[in-house]
Amino acid sequence: MSTTTIDRLRDTELSYRATLAGGALSVFLLIALLGLAFPSSIWGNFLAILTSRSTLSSALRLSVPITFAALGGIFSEKAGVVNIGLEGLLIISAFTAVITTAVVGPEMTVVGLPAIWIGFFAGILSSVLFSALFAVVCIRFKADQIIAGLAVWLIALGLAPFAATVYYGGVNTDNLGTTLGTWTIPVLSDIPFFGAFFDADPAVYMMLVAVPASWYVLNRTAFGRHVRASGENPKALDTVGVDVSRVRYAGVLLSGFLAGIGGSALSLGLGQFVGNNQTMVNGKGFIAIVAYLFGNYNPIGAFGASFLFAGLEAAQIRLQQVPGYAIPDSLIQTIPYVTVLVILALVGRTRIPEAAGEHYDTGDDNR
Amino acid sequence: MSAAENAKAVLRRLTAASATERILISFAALIMAVLVGAVIILVSGRITTCQTAATTLFGTGFCYDPVEVYLVLFNGALGEPFLLNDPALFNPDWNPLNFGFALTLKETTLLIFTGLSVAVSFRAGLFNIGTQGQLVLGGLATALFSFFVAPLLPSGLVGGLILIPLAVVIGALVGGLYGAIPGALKAYADANEVITTIMLNFIAAQIAFVLVSEFFGNPDSQVVETTPIPDWATLLPVAFPQGGDFSILALAFGLALVVAVWFLLEQTSFGYDLRTSGEQPEAAEYGGVDAKRTTVTSMFLSGALGGMGGAIWVLMVMGKWQAGVPALGFDGITVSILAGNNPFGVVPAALLFGTLKSGSLAVQFGTGVPKQLVGVLRGLIILFVAMPEFFRMLGSTIDLEPDRETVATDGGRLGGDDE
Amino acid sequence: TGGPSEGSQETTATTTESSGGEETTAAEQTTEESGPSAYVGMVYALGGLGDKSFNDAAKRGIEEATSEFGVEYDEAQPSAAEEFPQFQRRFAQSSNPDYDLVSCIGYAQKSALAETAPNFPEQNFMIVDDTVDEDNVASYLFREEQGSFQVGYLAGLLTTQEFSAGSGSTTPDSKNVGFVGGVDAPLIRKFQAGFEAGVAHADEEITVDAAYAGSFSDSAKGKEIATSMYDNGADIVYHAAGGTGLGVFQAAKEQGKFAIGVDSDQSQTEPNYSDVILASMVKRVESAVYTSVENVVNDEFNGGTTTTLGLEEDGVAAVYGAELGSEIPQDVKDSLSESREAIIAGDIEIPTTTE
Amino acid sequence: MSTAVHLDEITKRFPGVVANDDVDLTVERGTVHALLGENGAGKTTLMNILYGLYEPTEGTVHVDGEPRDFDSPADAIDAGIGMIHQHFMLVDPMTVAENIVLGNEPRKWFGTTVDRERARQEVIDLSNRYGFDVNPDDAIEDVSVGVQQRVEILKALYRGADILILDEPTAVLTPQEVEELFRVFEELTAQGKTIIFISHKLGEAMHAADDITVLRNGKNVGTVKADETSNEELAELMVGREVLLEPKAEPQEPGDEVLSVQHLSAKDNRGIPAVSDVSFDIREGEVFGIAGVDGNGQSQLVEAITGLRTPTEGSISYKGGDITDASRRSRIADGMAYIPEDRHERGLVMDFDLVQNGILGSQHSPTFAADGRINWSDARDHAERIIDEYDVRPPHADADAESFSGGNQQKFIVGREFEREPDLVVATHPTRGVDIGAMEFIHERLLTLRAEGKAVLLVSSKLDEVQGLSDRLGVMHDGELMDIVDPRNTTEEEIGLLMAGERPNAAETDAEPPVGDAQ
Ligand SMILES: Nc1ncnc2c1ncn2[C@@H]1O[C@H](COP(=O)(O)OP(=O)(O)OP(=O)(O)O)[C@@H](O)[C@H]1O
Ligand SMILES: Nc1ncnc2c1ncn2[C@@H]1O[C@H](COP(=O)(O)OP(=O)(O)OP(=O)(O)O)[C@@H](O)[C@H]1O
Ligand SMILES: [Mg+2]
Ligand SMILES: [Mg+2]
After folding, report:
1. I want to staple D177 with a disulfide (CB 3.0 to 4.6 A). Which of C273, D146, D201, D403 is the partner?
2. Which CATH class is domain D258-507?
3. What does the pLDDT look like over B147-158, one tens digit per residue?
């Protein structure tokens, strides 16, 4: 094959990203244009919402659980294990974080660590334990990954409200009366609009660190290469002497770790776990899957997609408050989903790691 | 090959036969889930507080007694045929046509529809998570259609005979069309159906909500719901108590559909096409199957079954459409998985989950154990069903493995892959 | 430290609160020699206990009745609308114990009860927030718009003046306040309409930012919505959103602004936020529950009637926050007393729907 | 000369199969050693044991005179062994350099980060040392099979391999690439490396190897010196009887035109032009062969003819009617049989049993499905007939396709397609991976069809096969039909040149751009 072939391939890859970025940008420009032209129309309101610092900080906050779950999903799936149970990991960590804080006592500190942070780490730990269970089931016992993932979700979905009911008598936990709070960086937080980046939940900062860090780990470290190889062609990895199971376990545990941060941040940002219906996680884990597929398994892309969903949600909340605005709220709430559908219909499939979802066997049953 | 060898080969193939194995594994999964569930019950019985211990093990008192919980669950689902704390054991007042049992059968009936819906798409290799959305919109279509057409028809039995089948067809059609959307997106835009169906579930819920709250709501109600359909146009309980919301007609219809779906999948050319594209799309195309069309058709079919589930929910249970549709579509996924995507398997699987669900209320009442326990059990069952390897390993330690004969090196293997 | 607490007989049979946990069927497990005066079945609204407003208020009602009349009760927390008829029916058909009253909390149970009640003509029911026209159902309605008017008036008076108390303060130059609704239903619109009228009564120029979370239990959404309102310059946000409202308090605390509670006196049910809760629009669900139980115990069950409770009957009221109430200027309180009289006298017309 | 590898009485049992039975093998340092044998003879298994992928049931592996016990390939690599598998073990989306250093990445910054610059440089140095031509920055999925193979060899060398094992390395190469590979062998042995390669091709083994070991039914049936043996001796050792080595199609008068392809162009799955302006026709009683290195558009051409791909330009007519836009299903119904190149992906549904696989393509035909309902008992009879006539082993119609060996799967497909009573048979690589016995059988059947007056389109990368069976032979390169030659009067070298894109008459091809790195 000639070099032009390669160029063309790069082109398709580029065009995917270009379509996404270009699409988003042109929609924004269109709104800006209409908004500037008719400042008193709905477009003017829309532009004001999109350019407000309040919307930005809201979008950052809302994207935290989605982004962390998506990052987790990337590590797991890149390593060859499709983790559809992210939703369950978010639920279990959100619940454990709150209940641990409550048991320790929200005002207590243990060896200098405020209870809420103990809860935060306990949430992560619970998610890691759940993902370890998932990993053993999938890797050791060769379970169908999709089904096992669904099971993880269902178990968490039952267990968290169950435990809350046992402990509190209702599916919701009591309010802790305290949250992770905000960290404000002096001076920087005074910048208009972008100051939102410097006056945010601790979890937002973690997210802003985790995204590039994940990218780095995947693309620049040996471990990242092994993860990618394990998801593309595990045999290739095995034959050069790297233990595929170890890499896969690591990938899945990492997904538990990251999703755990997202779950803990979600519930502790509120100081409460809500266990009604789909719980307070309410589909964020599934949206995370969409986000990383959308971002083509690139942590930065996944963050972009999560931020897009969160941004649409933040805008939606504000759009509702524009007086005299007739479109029903429920319809506005469909905007993020419809957007995803339209973009999917236009750009089609993302490339799934070749061996994702398959078991890997060294081929010898004597060992 | 000698006769003895032949017989051995047949035996070996039988033991490896996937159907038998599936059933065994499903049972084993159920037992494991029940055992793990018992542990969870015991542990939570230490966390909660109570006056008297429900059971005492190893000198420790527990607030909840797992054995009692399971007995109450089962007993409740059947409408209490047994008197658990009475030496008489049997409840003389028990009537098989009771409320608790009706509840079980109601859930079972609904799950048969959604289980079939999911099974059809899974067999076609399509991971349709969207039965829920198809059910929501199919149900809404049925409710609106019945409401608007009912005044045009004579009320009573005749009207019901005309209206109910039509309403079910409308539900199926709308569900089918809504299911065809992700099918078409998959076939013609190569969009991953897992994502699109998840998105479409959200969208369906919101659209239905808006339609009802803004345009077709019941003006007399605070709740987002349609105006009730006249009783003669709904599926009324025949023998079972009023309010149990179970109609034997709907169950019969569901069972007929099971046979129909089985026939379609296993006995017809279309079913062959569908299964082939599910197993191996490339091979299907090679065999002259129009993969794109089959994708759309299968999704339509799956959606239609989901839509019928919605129609039955409206006609049998609610008598109207109401926001906050229960997660029957998601439960259908678990039913289909437990059934191994086999139409006949859907019936016992639906019955099991129906029993769990209806028994859960009895558990909450009778023992104080939160009914969410059943959600945990459901997840555990699916988890164990997902790992047949676990049971094979258990089995091989107690030596259930068939002893294999040694064949010549080019003799191939028997009995399918052992994955 | 859970588990059974055998031998500790000092805990009375009906005490359902103990160290950190609740035993939902305590009543059933211990039958005292004398026997209770009545059995009551409670079917709560979606959202469940722990919302610190609506359902918890109903629970307070039955607990009061318990200690007053020695009744016993069992409770059910449905997690979906389809469970309403199932729980109602379970209570109604139970013979062990035989329930003397089934309390259905919340308007969402109306249609289920309309089906259940005629099937059990011997069973007494009561419903809160809607009416069911059956002889064995006592219905209780509230004039939420009146109480909401009062807190709206309070918000309108305070937002334009310099006021700071507890952890919050107003910004007198911005002329807007907020309203967060749970689900967009006519009942909640009634709260909004009353609130808006009250605000306008204080100052026509103040705008009310209003938004709905789509759920009574999505406190994360509640927090986001309230935060956006505070960011937009609102300094007082009133919620009629059950558990979702917890997020509103959270936002108020983080932003150093005020919130107004609903259903219960939330400065007491949510002591963590008593430094930002100016007042609450209490809706005495507890008295509806209590009264109906009292009627049953006294053999005066008022089936087939509808009781409407407004400001006059003290069924709704604006109560000042336990911590902040004392700091609210006297002239504001006087204005509220005046408006209360005027409403009772019928001098102020309050709309029940938003236009 | 010292002994590099000595396998001592190796036995390997799988559940139900003895893959290696008491095999002894000795390989001298600095030599090239060929392993021959039919499908399933145990060649791959034996080498997997040497490479530490499998543990022998019995027996010992000696490397450089020392007994070794490998727990994993990592141990074998440490002992200086490298293996290039039949199916390449490369990660497609990664670059050449990334693949070569995989698992042994050079690191910087306290081991946290892959030193990509150093990795690149090491790869360049290594390939220069052995005269390989690879670009470290190309993605594997973008380079030709020949390059991929070189990457595999470099991968082994990068890990310090002294002993290289290659499993069927020539199966997918052009004659020129094969020559190139053997030149590399010489280069490597000159530097003291030892090479073991597996092959099905007798000529190659005699040409490139110093010693040849033949396995049959898991046993070593003899080791011979390459320059002291003959094709016939080797063939007999392999099969245990005499075999017809070269298929020969006796000339025969063709009848009416069955298929006509005119100016056909098509794109591949990525939308890149793969077939450009191809024209030819096939008549009754004629075998039209297409030779060419894999990936030069044969697959897309065949898919366009069989209805699996829409051509971008040109037309196809079949039995006098235009079928350019006809569906796959209608072509099947119209008597077009097709042996696909990929039996695992297309030819069989692996999780279906043979009864179900037997009607693949006929599921709508009135023979098996009247009124849309499938008659399963007819289908069973049909499958059993194929099993019987085409000697599919073991003869279990109820067993899943997956459980049969590659050769038996192929026989079943061939049987199914031939039993359609076709007017045109499109056969792509019909004997790929199939052992000599089965190969002979399939060739015979093809010639029988030809004698019956059917038209046959035969695509194969095996030159001797297409040359021996075809009446006319088209050679494809880079999507173009270079020429149509008379296979009986053209030498292998001439065809090889055409396959490499060189027309004998240079004046005509000047306009052709240089072929890039496809070779
Ligand atoms: N992992 C395995 N488990 C069970 N049996 C196996 C396994 N691998 C190979 N076999 C069996 O061992 C025998 C030898 O297989 P092997 O792959 O070594 O043959 P081969 O000589 O390489 O054949 P080919 O020419 O087709 O590559 C075959 O009968 C095969 O069925
Ligand atoms: N796990 C296994 N158990 C038993 N036999 C196996 C196993 N894996 C592979 N085989 C057998 O090994 C042989 C070679 O398998 P492979 O997957 O290499 O097929 P192939 O390369 O398509 O076949 P062929 O080498 O005949 O072209 C086949 O006979 C197959 O049945
Ligand atoms: Mg081999
Ligand atoms: Mg092979």
Report:
1. D146
2. alpha beta
3. 999 999 888 888
